Amino acid sequence: MTSTQQVAAETFGRTETAMTLETLETPCLVLDTERMERNIARLRTRLDGLGVSLRPHLKTSKSAEVARRVMTTPEGPATVSTLKEAEQFASAGVRDMIYAVGITPSKLARVLELRARGVDLVVILDNVDQARAVAEASITSGMRIPAMIEIDCDGHRSGVAPANQALLLEIGQTLAAGAELRGVLTHAGDSYKGGGPQAQERFAEAERAAVVEAAQFLHASGLPCPVVSVGSTPTAHHALDLSGVTEVRAGVFVFFDLFMAGVGICQIDDIAMSVMATVIGHQREKGWIITDGGWMSLSRDRGTSKQAVDQGYGLVCDIEGKLYSDIIVADANQEHGILAARPGSGAQLPDLAVGDRVRILPNHACATGAQHDAYHVVRGTSHTVEARWSRFGGW
User: Which intervals hold domain D-serine dehydratase-like (predicted)?
Assistant: First the structure.
């Protein structure tokens, strides 16, 4: 047994024969680390060229093993979307995190607990009520909680418009009086609309301009603003100028998915995550192959349905991850997936027998990953499962 196989055997706690794709229980989540590493290197190289640091969002991976491979150091920096993530990653040694969802007063006790453990956890907010709650909790605890003001760069969701200087000033002053104003951040939600490279470049510039305008106003008002943070996977891959920005947050780039491919941010063969399923039957007169990979393993996300190419519940590959042309998961029940040719494509179903295995590329890596408790790690077309990396869920 090789050293890699020994590690895998210890990870699984099983016999050597359990360490191949053919012997895993299905449905299960498969991660191709060859693709993952390529995706990480691509964005790091790009951001290095623009002179900004990467603060990866860990909400997609929810895995300490993945986090270690995407963060700059074992301690961070990182972005999280739940306090459960912050607590789990803190237990794994991460010390520098932004909790990038608007804070509620009821969650501040958990924030303070993490900060008491030596975790530099930063919260975000976009209104005076939140700022007051953070300032009051800071004064009561004797521990200044750092907070960032969320900026609305495109009307997509939350945040303060940079032109609303009165509100920016009131929030900033409220924080400075009792807590800590760490800076400003924004997220270009409109970038998920696609539109091609030129549109993405415009989204990226609008993102940059909005957050830099807010930061400059706060500085001019005598308030600190050391961190200027932007972030979305599409804009991270299309920004031409990040002057005034200190860091970029992005997450799904580690795995990519069919939605990102539909937006034009990646190619199909960049997608590192897949769900392996087993053929359990046929409905030949209907042109169906039935698998044990239903929406409980794939998720119900149908985000590509509004794109130019509807990928159903996912694209179908062979066991090695090689794509079958125009074969999709056309429908799904809780534990059944229905494979069929894409309507109008003229594609022929692959000759798959009961017991054969397929891998499904997901529409939305975050949603699909959330259905599973572990990644089964492979490299490229190898059938050897090198490790089982745990992932977690919850809030």
Answer: 272-379
Average pLDDT taken over every residue of the chain: 95
pLDDT in tens, 268-287: 999 999 999 999 999 999 99
Domain boundary among 187, 218, 250: 250
**Cα distance from N-terminal residue to C-terminal residue, the chain:** 40
Compute the distance between CA of residue 52 and CA of residue 46 in angstroms, rounded to an integer: 9
Distance, in Å, from the CA atom of 105 to the CA atom of 285, rounded to the nearest integer, reads 58
SS3 call for 282: strand
What CA–CA distance (Å, rounded) separates 382 from 244? Answer: 44
The predicted structure's pLDDT at residue 246: 98
Q: How confident is the model at residue 10 (pLDDT cuts 50, 70, 90)?
A: very low
Taking only the tens place, the pLDDT of each residue in 77-130 is 999 999 999 999 999 999 999 999 999 999 999 999 999 999 999 999 999 999
- CATH code at position 99: 3.20.20.10
pLDDT at 156: 84
In a shared domain, residues 281 and 232? no
Contact between 124 and 211 under an 8 Å Cβ cutoff? The reply is no
Q: What DSSP designation does 72 have?
A: S
Cα 62 from Cα 54, distance rounded (Å): 17
* Closest CA relative to residue 273, chosen from 4, 72, 63: 63
Band (157; pLDDT cuts 50, 70, 90): confident
One domain for residues 96 and 189: yes
Residue 358 belongs to a domain: yes
* Lookup: tokens for 14: 């099983």
For residues 274 and 244, state if they share a domain: no
Rounded Cα distance between 176 and 115, Å, is: 18
Q: Report which residue type is found at 350.
A: P
CA count, 13 A, side-chain hemisphere, 42 = 19
Looking at the structure, tell me whether residues 78 and 100 fall in a common domain.
Answer: yes
- Residue identified by tokens 């919260």 is 123
Preceding peptide of 105 cis, ω within 30°: no
- φ/ψ of residue 38, rounded to 5: -65, -40
Q: Domain range spanning residue 92?
A: 57-250
> Which SS3 state, helix, strand or coil, does residue 246 take?
coil
Q: Are 79 and 212 contained in the same domain?
A: yes
Q: What is the pLDDT of residues 206-248, one digit of tens each?
A: 999 999 999 999 999 999 999 999 999 999 999 999 999 999 9
Tell me whether residue 50 is in a domain: no
